[in-house]
Structure formats: structure tokens, C-alpha cells
Amino acid sequence: MRNGVNLVLLFACLFLSLSCREEKSTKNLIYVGPKSELTDIDMVYSDSARTVVRMVTPTQLTLYSEDRVYPKEVKLWFYDKLGNVTSQVRGDSAHFFRQNNSYKLMGNVQIFNVQQGETLKTDEFTWLPEEKRVFTEKPVQIRTKKEIIYGVGMDAAQDFTHYSLRHVSNSVLTVESLPTD
User: Fold this and answer.
1) pLDDT tens digit string along 84-118?
2) 31-173 in CATH: which number?
3) According to a count of CB atoms within 10 Å of the terminal CB, is the N or C end of the chain lower?
4) Which PROSITE patterns match (predicted)?
5) Which residues of 90-127 are buried (b: 16+ CB within 10 A; e: fewer)?
């Protein structure tokens, strides 16, 4: 009888020991993925019931910091007060930083100003929706109807109707007309 009690006590101790270990190991697991994941995003930003910007992207990941990551291509369309598209933007990916309410588009960023027929190319730019402006510190190429302008750094209105380069390189190419991309 004594051996039977000892055996039961041994199994009980072993069981409790294993269950405690198992509990400890699950407490050490920490989830580091996104808070949520949305697909097929087609979002419209409006002001006084008027469309200002439309954004389309296949995936949006929301992090626990409330930042949002757009790991795939992002397309933006900016609209004027009459509802006409003033510019189109695309980038390979983007990141929304909640803390300072800014977007950073990255990778093969192209901006087409519909009204002026100009295309700007850069590696990344930052969009500040509250200030209605965009900027970059990176090299840029602006292609107008008659020029290709190279520079570093740019500041612009969010609809790209007005922009200025911080540093224009000596490489400005002027021609009668340029083929479109």
C-alpha cells in the first residue's frame, strides 16, 4: 500500500511539475505581428464632403502603435475643389506614422501632375496631410514637356501644383519635346 501511495505521489508531483513548466513556456511567448490586416483598400479622404485624396493599395497592416504599414504598391489621386484629379502618385510601399500624422511613400515613387503634364521621380517622399504638403530629402528627377531637371530635395503642395527643388544640379536637359514614359 505504501508503494502505491508513493507511486501516486510521484505521478502527482511529475504532473504538477510538467504543468508548471508548460504554463511558464506559454507566458514567454509574445505576439509581435500586426494588430490587424486589411486587404483591397480603397480609401477616400474628404474635407467638407469633398474628395481631397483617394488611396488604393492591396494590403494595410495596423501595428499596436496605431502606425499603418502598406507593404505593397500604393496609389494616390489628389483632387481639386471641382473634383478633378490634379495629380497621381504611386510608390512600391508606404508607412503611416500616427504620432506625427505623416505618410512616407518609398520605392520608385512617381508623381504625375495632370494639369502641367510633369512627372517627378524619387526614391521616397513624406506627405503631411494636415499641412497639405509633401517633401523629400532624396534625389529627384522632374520631367516637363521640354526639360529634364535633376536635383536633391523638394518641397511641394500636396497636389503638386507648386513645388521647389532645394538643390538643382547642373544637369538640366532642354529639348524641343520629350517622348512620354
Assistant:
1) 999 999 999 999 999 999 999 999 999 999 988 99
2) 2.60.450.10
3) N
4) PROKAR_LIPOPROTEIN
5) bbbbbbbeeeeebbbbbeebbbbbbeeebbbebbbbbb
